[in-house]
Amino acid sequence: APGMLASHYAPVTPLEIHPTNTLWHRVLQMVWQGKNVAVLKLGDDGKAFESSKVTIICMPPKAVEYGSKLYSTLHRLDRGGFDCLLLELPPDASEWLAVNDRLRRAAQSPSRE
């Protein structure tokens, strides 16, 4: 069954998941390397990032809404010509367990192992 696999949907574009405190450092590293990056961040905290190499997508701050948008957003970004997808790690709370599990699986692409 699909939910039992180690990797369910995994984008072809490399996906990295980072805690908030290291996400923007990684974004800067990728920009300095000339990479075209999409950033999925949790909610809209007003943090702006000015660069033609960075596209920021604000994901819903509630787990159920986030989960319902996750795969459609990943599919859209996967077709967007990005070098890397950088994702802010959601909270480690019970209501986020399913979302975090999906994210972990999406980041485990067999072609990148």
Task: Supply database-style keywords.
four-stranded parallel sheet, 113 residues, alpha/beta, single chain
Would you kindly provide a written description of the structure presented here, covering whatever features stand out?
By secondary structure, the chain is an alpha/beta fold. The chain is built from 3 helices and 4 strands. It has helices at 20-32, 63-78, 97-106; strands at 15-18, 37-42, 54-59, 84-88. Strands 1-4-2-3 form a 4-stranded parallel β-sheet, sandwiched between helices. The two termini are 22 Å apart.
Strand order of the largest sheet: 1-4-2-3
The CA-CA distance between the termini, in Å, is 22 Å
Count the DSSP helices.
3
Shape: globular
Query: How many individual β-strands?
Result: 4
Q: SSE string, helix = H, strand = E?
A: EHEEHEH
Largest sheet: 4 strands, parallel
Radius of gyration: 14 Å
Beta-strand percentage range: 15-25%
Instruction: Return the average pLDDT rounded to an integer.
Output: 85
**Which residue ranges are poorly predicted, with pLDDT under 50 across at least 5 consecutive positions?**
1-7
Given helix and strand content, the structural type is alpha/beta
Helical content stands at 25-40%
The gist of it:
The chain is of the alpha/beta class. The protein is built from 3 helices and 4 strands, in the order βαββαβα.
Secondary-structure blueprint:
Layout: E1 15-18, H1 20-32, E2 37-42, E3 54-59, H2 63-78, E4 84-88, H3 97-106
Parallel strand pairs: 1-4, 2-3, 2-4
